Amino acid sequence: MSFVPAWLPELAEAVAxxxxxxxxxxxxxxxxxxxxxxxxxxxxxxxxxWSRWAQWxxxxxxxxxxxxxxxxxxxxxxESLLSEDTLDSLRRALRLAPTNALALARLARATLADxxxxxxxxxxxxxSRRVGELVP
Length: 136
Fold this sequence. Notes:
Layout: H1 7-16, E1 18-20, E2 26-28, H2 31-42, H3 49-58, H4 74-84, H5 87-96, H6 101-113, H7 120-134
Antiparallel strand pairs: 1-2
């Protein structure tokens, strides 16, 4: 059985920005508390699963691995999904990187190619507008 580290509830409160007191009153948590905890957890030398998870959770989402116990990085996963170039793979890529203009543009194109669903035109128009917002 795995223990829950003392810092885990503290992290949950810091991420949420609020602490619920025993009487049900909400107490705001300042952003500086999160930043201090992040600095402490990301520089810790502990290698237990909880500490590894915390370091993954607090890492840059654009460059970290896809899961705390994975070696596959988000950029490599996105590259692989883009190379598949299917509706499903492009949607999965956008779940990992919602502002990836290339994935959005390819999804717009693939959506238009799906002629079985008339709603796809509106979806493709939305995706194309989103690409224009990201890449003027």
